[in-house]
Design brief:
The chain is an alpha/beta fold. Helices cover 36% and strands 16% of the residues. The chain has helices at 16-32, 91-100, 112-117, 126-143, 191-203, 234-242, 301-308, 316-339, 348-356, 363-372, 382-386, 397-414, 422-442, 448-467, 472-483, 537-544, 610-626; strands spanning 7-12, 38-43, 148-153, 157-161, 164-167, 172-174, 177-181, 206-208, 226-230, 250-253, 259-262, 269-273, 487-491, 495-499, 504-508, 516-518, 520-523, 550-554, 561-567, 569-570, 575-577, 583-590. The strands form 6 sheets. Strands 3-2-1-7-22-21-20 form a 7-stranded mixed sheet, with helices on one face. Helix 8 (316-339) runs antiparallel to helix 13 and helix 13 (422-442) packs antiparallel against helix 14. The model has no long low-confidence stretch (mean pLDDT 95). This is FAD/NAD(P)-binding protein.
Length: 630
Amino acid sequence: MADPAPFTLAVVGAGPRGVGVLERLGANAAELLGGRRLDVHLIDPFPPGPGRVWRYDQSPLLRMNSMPEDVTMFTDDSVKMAGPILPGPSLLEWAKKVRDGSLEAEVPPDVVTELTALDAFHFPTRRLQSAYLTWVYRKILGDLPEGITVVEHAARAVDVDGSLVRLSDGTELTADAVVFTVGHLDAEPDEWERELASFAGRHGLAYYPAGYTADVDYSGVEPGETVLVRGFGLAFVDLMLLLTEGRGGRFEELDGGGLRYHPSGHEPVLHVGSRRGVPYHAKIGYRLCGKPLRLPRFFDAYAIDELAGTPGALDFRADVWPRIAKELAWGYYSELFTGHPDRVRLDFAVFADAFADLAWGSPGMRDLVERAVPAEEDRLDLDALDRPMAGREFGTPEEFGKELREYIEGDLARRADQTFSADLGAFMALLSVYGQMPALVQKRRLNAASQVSDMDGWFHGFFSYYASGPPPRRLEELLALHEAGVVSFAGAEMRVTADAARGVFVASGASYPGEIAARTLIEARLPGPSVTRAADGLLRQLRDTGQLAEETVADPETGVLLPSGRIHTRVSDSRLLDGTGTPHTHRFAVGPHTSARSAAAFTRPRTNASSFRQNDAVAREILALVSPPS
């Protein structure tokens, strides 16, 4: 009898997530492939491994916001999954092995010096990360078992019709299964952005809607012109560098510490603001001092099951956030008590017993913390962390600028001083909480409006602001640019209006007196998830033909449906759901903008990362299709 034809899998997207699924296919093959052949077609116009975001072909100024010891593409024994663990080096371990000659890798000449000097607390360039991801991909290819072959297609998938997958280069594939490994979804401008773009067109202005900064052409921004920038996160950090140092300016290290910026004369003047009015917190530059943290402790599977059993729909802020806040406080105070016992009044065991019995925000909890932690600066205040400028007003722009400089300087000092290592305890707890979110979503007990606005909106923003900020050097550069007059701070609760009478954009804010008029406005942020406004032609085609749908969140009490913007998938197995809510037997989607809501950041070792678990689960589902159980 002739051997059966190979099973053909199309993987649309060959960046880190697509390669991660490929690794799990290889890892699970011995158990599940059953002797059948599997042909995997990797479809991506960008290089497999790095993909679009981490491709080598981008500015050498752009860096990761993760340290190399916190970046891995390989599973370890913390990952709770059905498939086998196949360990491998983190980015830092890889660099060390390449340096000492114990591992061979092709490293572009312009990152060799960086690789040679790399240590645990550096922030690598995206080009060095690209070299690591290229090596990871080639290692995965080399480790694939007999029976799995890979075909690369440097093209886009433009149409999926039944089993036929058409590519932008004219290639047509007949695929038995398709997995969409999507990152952030590019989106067409929303209604407000379209209005601003239309206003700009009528008045000869420049408007840049939300987008991935490294891919936007800002060459039209003129030297010396006033530019409004809305957004103070990582997209702004990239923009700031590209429009300053990227235009020929340079930073000088000062003998007493800090930086001085020497303009090239080609820079615009950036007036930046946001809802908080402050930049994301700098990444922490030290390790824990105390005993290992017990995480999760108060926001674990048991807590989520308990929440799911609560009568009525859950409100994220009222019902879920207090438990998350208690988990963050547990991480914070665990490190404070065990790492800095001279700054507390109670034995940790006594504090922990009392803490466990009290609700976050209750009078009893406040009393316990005040009795146990004498210094107010050592007490965790999540409201102040979230909105540090709330209710603050300033008489002049100079007053606000001085206050914000002091805030940034204080953040830099605190995140470089192990005296404040309790902040790292809260950081680790926040990472743990984020990993529990898919399980919470799967319970379908959240009030729809609360899930979309509070969990997907506010909480995700808080996570990014506290845990996903820039390298400290970037905030030092921000201060230098402010001192040089190239960056100005436009305040919290930034509002932008289109002033038809003057034919300009006008910005104002709660903490910033007066207003700023400009002919250029830049949205320094990634677009939110939106299947409705998807810019990708394939996603639009699948949406318009009913093969792919935007997730709608149903209120468990009223049945009211609200769109979340995400690709609708079944969280348990990542199967794609069509317009009727029916799971497709042979199509899957994984990524941050699917219903599973996995983090877009790279995986830290030993964190039981949800992305690894999802990759393993979807790989096993695919292999079960290749060789169905008898």
